[in-house]
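Collaborator request, handled under Task 6.
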Amino acid sequence: MKKAVILLSGGLDSTTVAAIAKDQGFEIYALSFRYGQRHDQELDAAARIAQLTGVKRHVISEIDLRAFGGSALTDDISVPKTGDTNNSESDIPITYVPARNTIFLSFALAFAETIDSQDIFIGVNALDYSGYPDCRPDYITAYETMANLATRAGVEGTQKLTIHSPLMELNKAGIIKRGLELGVDYSMTTSCYDPAESGASCGQCDACTLRLKGFKEAGLTDPIPYITS
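Structure tokens returned to the collaborator:
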């Protein structure tokens, strides 16, 4: 069975990607991060999802991006609650964490090399997303090119790494429908940037707004609890 490293945040997108990888016959090695984010609820969700998905191994790596700050997710900055889903590429929101996907993919690259994996899956999307620069197709292509120059396995010719981004051209409704086809239980996931202590999602941050929009366009009700929506 082919091995794949899945970047698993505990959110809707990465959970769908894990289901896609499993459906494609990969043995899954999940990688999550405690990177100084505002809450641990997404890590709790990632652990639940990893168990339900039957991953071979789930690693939670510790990185403290609060040392740099610069984001509402890692600094003393309020999470915007505008509900605006019309960010353009030139309008990058304060919830963008500087270089986060580059850092995460670098850890995934190291993990993949140690387990002799040729495949990394990431749940980035270029349609219904917040305008983050490290979610674009050009970025993924460029990183894959770099990755194949950066490791001993690549230089020795024993690894030809592929970075899979199967959600890239799907909107949120399409992602949800695909996940449901594969049996994903979205009640186990969380997307909110600023949830209540009870675990209920705020319903007003960018992540919640995009998620709610996706379920509405799919003709479905989001199964997770919200403070407001």
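The cover message to the collaborator said: "The chain is about 35% helix and 10% strand. The chain has one domain: 3-217. Please let us know whether this matches your experimental observations."
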